[in-house]
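Good morning C.,

I know you're traveling, so I'll keep this short. The sequence:
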Amino acid sequence: MKKTILLLCQVFLVTALFAQFDSETPATKYFNKTDLSACIGLGYFKTDIVNGYQKKVRNDALTFPIQTINGFIFSGRTGVGIGVGIEPWRDGLLYPVFGHIFYDFSPADNTLFASFSCGYSWGKRYATNNYHAGTGGLMLSIGIGYKLKVTKRLQFEYEAIYRYQAFESSYDVINSDSTGAIIYQRTVDYKVPCNYAGFRLGIVFH
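The tokens, ready to paste straight into the viewer:
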């Protein structure tokens, strides 16, 4: 999964670069987008199994992802790029790497737009009383927002988003006899899916 996502990101940029340099009058232009989000957890997520029952924990996390995206805009309305970021948690720190695409509903400078990002988050979530430690996993986000022209090459973005972040974790299943000696032990790997809603503020240069 990690290698596939990184390969797709590379293909996006290489394709855009060839389109830019092979044309005397390029139909593409470069953009950089830097943004900050505030996201709050939605619902519950399932975690460790204790005494045969899987625990269910309320997702009360509050995160503030910061990310920057570089890519190209095609035909003035569709943008494709690669992003990296940092996402501090109350109990850990993640480093997402992802592909990003957006579409402007109008070619005007001030317009509604939709966006989609998908990638993988490296990093760690530390253990608490509710769950074991885990590492980052699949990440994706979907958003809809509004672009506002500030200058000829600068826009502000205001965006409502849904964000999904999976974690990969494990726990040990141990059976012992009446003396306390271990007679059976195995490690179980599992994924923890977490959902978030949030708001994003961005600055776009192009």
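Safe travels,
E.
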